[in-house]
Design goal:
The complex is a heterodimer of chains A (102) and B (309). By secondary structure, chain A is mainly alpha-helical. Chain A has a single domain, classed as Orthogonal Bundle (Helix Hairpins), CATH 1.10.287. In chain A, helix 1 packs antiparallel against helix 2 and helix 2 runs antiparallel to helix 3. The longest helix of chain A is centred in the last third of the chain and has 31 residues. The N and C termini of chain A lie far apart (49 Å). In chain B, 63% of the residues lie in helices and 2% in strands. In chain B, strand 1 and strand 2 form a beta hairpin. Chain B is extended and about 95 Å long. The N and C termini of chain B lie far apart (75 Å). Classes of the chains: A mainly alpha (102), B mainly alpha (309). Chains A and B meet through helix 1, helix 2 and helix 3 of A and helix 1, helix 2, helix 4, helix 6 and helix 7 of B.
Chain lengths: 102, 309
Amino acid sequence: MTETQLQFYLAVGAIMFSIGLIGFIVRRNLIVMFLCTELMIQGCAINLIAFSRYHANLAGQAFVMFALVIAAAEASLALGLVILLFREKNTLDADAWREMRG
Amino acid sequence: MLVQSLSGPLSISLALPLAQGALVAPLAILVLCIVAGVGTYLLLPGDQPVKFRQIGGVLITLSLIVIGLLALRNAEGGPMAATGVYFWIFSIVAIAAAFRVITHPRPVYAALYFVLTVFATGGLFVLLQADFLAAALILIYAGAILITYMFVIMLAAQASSPDGGTVSKGLAKYDITSREPVMAACAGFALMGVLLMVIFDKATTITPMPAPIENGVVAPADMQNRPTEALGDYLFRHQLINVELAGLILTLSMVGAIVIARRRIHVTLAPAWDVVEEVAPPSTPINDDPHSIPVVGTTNPSQKAYPEK
């Protein structure tokens, strides 16, 4: 794997991370906001695996495995919280919790 | 390149190709990010006319194509020698589907486009010889996480009432309006521009690692021929405690999700008017018999909460 190939993969990861960031700021649906965080996690995963391939070092792949574990744990907890919040206000709008701002 | 980065200090392998110049000029990245930012603003959920949305989609597509072509033009060894055609297919699918995730007003479709992104990312992982992670990504994301998302979306969509601001075609108001689209597009594309500039242009200014880390290094032949075996070998030889901790975290999150999302049932017992509660103060044991120790709340020692006989 050459330096140029590494740069292409890193660029794809950076673009996906930025798209996820924009979506997290813009969307008001709680579930879609969590989907956007998963997009950001995938952008990071592409970076890690590209570096793992470039250095022929498996630590990057192990990182991605643990990131997948964290993503699964986060998804289950986040959806539990979303269900809890939905029961309170009967809407998925994040702005319904506007009074929680500090 | 692999052998080089394995044997010698990384500065050698990092310094060689980048001395020839950047792949994409910083000015081009700046202009393209501004164009794509405007396109994203037009494409985000809101009350824009359909024509503006089409213009936004065209702008984003054009800027992505131009940045890809610019990077390819300066790539060493010709356009298709740098990366195979599969890289372009997978990355274009992944980025286009990611744009649809954040712009589609219906959450179910956004989740389905996210599945498309997951599959394309799995393809990129296969190209990077991370076979096991490609399979795990598709199984975990497309198989498990997304199904959970879909269940929650449908549960919420089914239960949402019309007074929650349903406008037209069954779409909720919060799904067709954006929160701060201008600021979000500016922030996101500023970040994207800086990242791309660092990746394509300023990589030489980053101080390389002094020496490659020995832990986790595999032979290139192993990475080519048996990547899954090598990963398992590494995980269970060097990262065993972390694997166990990952299992612990999954168990904890499962328990936590059950505790958080359970429905609380309030059981109202009938008031016990006829039971006179007599609270006795705790006192010292009467004799050496452990069963004679008085229990708080009752005067009868045989009514202990824990049967010891």
